[in-house]
Write a structure and sequence with these properties.
Cofactor: pyridoxal 5'-phosphate
Structural class: alpha/beta
Oligomer: single chain
Pfam families: Aminotran_1_2
Strand order of the largest sheet: 2-8-7-6-5-3-4
Number of strands: 13
Protein name: Aminotransferase class I/II-fold pyridoxal phosphate-dependent enzyme
Organism: Flavobacterium cellulosilyticum
CATH superfamily of the largest domain: Type I PLP-dependent aspartate aminotransferase-like (Major domain)
Number of domains: 2
CATH topology of the largest domain: Aspartate Aminotransferase, domain 2
Number of helices: 14
CATH architecture of the largest domain: 3-Layer(aba) Sandwich
Shape: globular
Strand content: 5-15%
GO molecular function, one term: kynurenine-oxoglutarate transaminase activity
């Protein structure tokens, strides 16, 4: 009998497969199609000839741990102990999976805010726990009345994603104050904060859990070098958590992965001496603005995009089709692949919105927009 009976092929796989079959422009999956920084590829080429191909310590390459500690301090003014409070993971998905497996027990409840990324629920179910799905408002802001009602004596964890995939929404200070009040009532709840797009923000920076003194002693923060440095295929991320939580996470990590890709860790460690993550926001804001300008004459209504490299668009004035059928028709008739937002909801909520990834070179964005303006 299946342990995940309701889990099927993800919409990301389906849409990317359709894009390949019909030679469509793939704006569905969230990965860049432009070259990696040549400084990073030169580092990798040099390291290939050096003795960096064996197991590294389970927690991660010590110089990389130190540099992440410096990055957290510089970015968020939080001091963490690299050897005890940071863990290198095989991507943020593994980081999230490992955290849930370590923290959540049978019949615990974990609150997920929908629309949500699809990697959250599976490990909860594999723990024989209960995923409590709570819809955000239609403008993708947290609905604190609904969230508070979802808390109970069985609640073990709440998962938040900020900046938010798929919507690009960023939490406000008021949102965090509401969460902090809830945590004062429910003292055993742990916060898992998915912040993989933390450096891809625009007019305003996101508020990191690292900066919330009332929360961070009960929080696990997941980050991603893959997202930050356009190297999603490397699958290297990291967790930051207080030592008492990290000890439990490492117990699972050592039997799930043990040690993450050595050459990639060393390369990223060296690259951090050359690059500034503070430049990422401006880089992607230029792409966001360019893509939005290209779609000005389309019939799509573009929703605000405050962070991430995704643009949500409403097609309500174009068609009454459900969003899955509309996305499939976009591929078949116009040669552009997107993601239906309903796939991020447990209940399949359909408000006629789809997601485009604008982490593409300008030529790709121009041709995609040309086709979308014909819809």
């Amino acid at each position: 009998m299946s342990k995940l009976p309701n889990t099927s092929t993800s919409i990301f796989t389906i849409m990317s497969k359709m894009a390949t079959e019909y030679n469509a422009i793939n704006l569905s999956q969230g990965f860049p199609n432009f070259p990696v920084d040549q400084r990073l590829t030169k580092i990798i080429a040099s390291l290939a000839k050096k003795n960096v191909h064996q197991y590294l310590p389970m927690s991660g390459y010590p110089p990389l741990l130190q540099k992440i500690g410096s990055l957290v301090l510089k970015s968020y003014q939080r001091t963490v102990q690299p050897e005890n409070e940071i863990l290198i993971t095989a991507g943020a998905t593994q980081a999230i999976f490992t955290t849930i497996m370590a923290m959540v027990k049978t019949n615990n409840e974990v609150i997920i805010l929908d629309p949500s990324y699809d990697c959250y629920e599976a490990p909860i179910l594999l723990c024989n726990a209960i995923a409590v799905r709570v819809d955000l408002n239609d403008d993708y802001t947290p609905n604190w009345n609904r969230i508070e009602k979802a808390f109970s004596s069985k609640t073990k964890m709440i998962i938040i994603n900020n900046p938010h995939n798929p919507t690009g929404k960023i939490w406000t200070n008021t949102d965090f104050e509401s969460l902090e009040k809830l945590f004062e009532k429910y003292l055993d709840v742990i916060l898992l904060s998915d912040e993989v797009y933390e450096f891809i923000t625009f007019e305003q920076h996101h508020i990191a859990v690292h900066t919330r003194k009332k929360l961070r002693h009960r929080s696990v923060v997941a980050s991603s070098f893959g997202k930050s440095f356009h190297i999603t295929g490397w699958k290297v991320g990291y967790l930051v958590a207080p030592e008492y939580l990290m000890l439990e996470i490492k117990k699972v990590h050592q039997f799930l992965v043990f040690s993450v890709n050595s050459i990639c860790q060393v390369a990223i460690s060296e690259y951090l001496d050359l690059v500034s993550v503070n430049q990422l926001g401006a880089f992607y804001q230029e792409k966001r603005d360019y893509f939005r300008k290209l779609l000005e004459n389309s019939r799509f209504k573009l929703l605000p995009c405050e962070g991430t490299y995704f643009q949500v668009a409403s097609y309500a004035s174009i068609s009454d089709e459900n969003d899955v059928d509309f996305c499939k028709r976009l591929v078949l008739e116009y040669g552009v692949a997107a993601i239906p937002i309903s796939s991020f909801y447990a209940n399949g909520k359909d408000i006629k919105c789809i997601r485009f990834c604008f982490a593409k070179d300008n030529k790709t964005l121009e041709e995609a927009a040309k086709r979308l303006c014909m819809v």
